[in-house]
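Morning!

As promised:
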Amino acid sequence: MFDPEIVTLFDSGCSMSVATVGPDGAPHASRGWGLTVLPDGEHVRLLLDANDSVAMANLAGGGAVAVTGVCVPTLKAVQLKGEADEPAVTSESSDLARATRHCEKFFADVSKIEGTPIVLLERLRPVDLAACTVAVCEVYNQTPGPGAGSLLGSPRER
Amino acid sequence: MSGDIDLHDVQFCFEGAVPAVIASVSADGVPNITYLSRVRMIDGERVALSNQFFSKTSRNLAENPRASVLVVDPCTYDQYRLTLVYERTERHGPTFERLRDDVDTVAELHGMQDVFCLRAADIYRVVSVEQTVRSPRVPPEALRRGPAGANAATGGRLAELSARLSRCGDLDTLVEVTVGGLSELLGYEHTMLLLVDERCERLYTIASYGYDDEGIGSEVAIGEGMVGMAALRCAPQRIGNLFQVRKYARAVGRAFADQGIGPGHDIPMPLLTDIQSRVAVPAMALGHLVGVLVAESPEPVAFDENDEATLGVVAALVAGAVEGERTRAAGAAIPESRSAPLAQVATGRGTTRIRHFSIDGSTFVDGDYLIRGVAGRILWALLGQYEAEGRVEFSNREVRLHPALELPEFRDNFENRLILLKRRLVERNVPIRIEKNGRGRFRIEVTTNLLLESSD
């Protein structure tokens, strides 16, 4: 099972970034727009920008993925690594609601702490969403400092 | 570099106001993604990343020298993806120094200089720049301003400020015209001018503009914080993301504390409570550091290289004038005081208690701290003669020889300290004033009864 703190972090509207890998081994950075820990405690449902064609192509047929979530007020951060299944464009109401909740919390935190106008942050919001399921293998501490990169564990070992 | 976007077009992204993200991949195909405190643009084809913690990224790049970086323009929130190829690592040189300044700024905020330091600067070639977000939904008026930059009018305004400075007859007027002119003519709404002390160890604020509290007499050690670093390195220092830097510093400080390494002291932050951007330029004359000129803004990424250049010109003018005044004062043959006028006896005006600590010159007025050091000693010496002899007029030359001042023989800064004292008395509304009444001469006006107490 995931540590409750990690579940809370990803539910808090954290700043979320996603790395995928191209067929030639090239990294590709993009943003995540919602992450929900599934009931089995080993998988998560990850929401991506459906118009990020490179990320979609990299995960076509499934692929390795890394997701880092950073708490905007504290910069406390974790990174999940695992294997994603093929993403599909989603219009499921639960996914749309999840992404909306994520954006509202994320934008509100950034605006409150850094004074950024919400209207500017809205430029980042994706028009279309894609969803995939990630089997999480490892969880890392990613908070800036000497402990960054240390392994926190695997959901399957807990 | 492929694509239509030039790296210079996205230069604001590299001010660090919005954290960047870097993705890398290990040799066996496992991706890694982490946040970066700062990406620096080196030239039109290269960027540098600071390497102090991200060891997994470093290991990946040793195996697979490609990276994907997301950066955001803090003024428009346009997002760009940079495709990078690792080129080399530098451990000295100008790029390393600039990144080290960034890291040092973070470290100094929480006294972590001994444990949080730049290990290397990783240099990457930018293969492509791709814009990922360009929403037409935001009206132009909602976009942030960004640095105004130099334009054709800047030169004319700078010339006008230069003319005004050249007409200043004394240092007091000069510092006032400097900070006032920077606002009126060049749009810098929050500025401070600091001068170097006699021992070249500290800077003290002699004038400021645009703050609730003028902070006259506030000090910073040379080498401490951004302002102190501008003095130490005699080079401009600029930051446009102090919110992020503070947040990052707190996070790193907590992480060190978790490992049993206690945080150090907090460097007092500037007078603006919501400051986002600051630029500090050294004021130099004849190869000597005279002071530091500082501009601040509540806007992120408010300053750029043009501001460094503009403020650098003003700082040089001020430094030249300060040095000129110092030389003139040191060489002027001012006659000893004529029959110095005596004070009218101050009656029926209340009593002000002045307490002086000779050990460091600290001086308190009715229990409130006023000033310390040379300026405190000057005040004490003047008030002692005022009380004992009723004198109100003095010459700079006689006062600077007063043994209690402990002035060094070389570069004694007497005039600067006298101006500092004068401005501090006004700022704190003390019923004692200092007014110039001729070249190398001044008078004090005391509108209170004095109770002088010395604590040796």
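The domain at 4-152 of chain A is CATH 2.30.110.10 (Pnp Oxidase; Chain A).

Hope this helps with the figure draft.
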